[in-house]
Design brief:
2 domains, alpha+beta, two-stranded antiparallel sheet
């Protein structure tokens, strides 16, 4: 029976099969996209594949979105964030820490 996610069935389909072996399954693309809920002081990010929910502060959410746009190098993320928020200048170690946490949580 397929898992239920917010009332919508999440199924997987076989992608390859070697005779005599079980099918390899992957989640559909829509199930790979994290679900995000925002409020004034942070966000909750639900990883549909792993089933994990992560609570993030606004700065970490900004780093997550910047890294998704430009890659997860600290230089690229800092440059991306500086385009919209000059207050991140000089916060490289904080950006690196957020990237490390996001990578460890498998959100990047």
């Amino acid at each position: 029976m397929p898992a239920q996610l917010l009332g919508t069935p999440v199924t997987s389909s076989p992608t390859s099969r070697i005779p005599g072996s079980p099918p390899t399954e992957t989640a559909p693309d829509s199930a790979r996209t994290p679900i995000e809920f925002f409020w004034d002081d942070g966000a909750a990010v639900y990883d549909c594949v792993a089933g994990d929910t992560h609570l993030l502060d606004p700065f970490t959410v900004a780093v997550l979105h910047a890294a998704r746009q430009c890659g997860n190098s600290p230089e690229a993320v800092c440059e991306q964030l500086l385009r919209t928020d000059r207050t991140v200048a000089g916060q490289r170690s904080r950006i690196e820490s957020a990237l490390d946490q996001l990578t460890a949580a498998r959100l990047l």
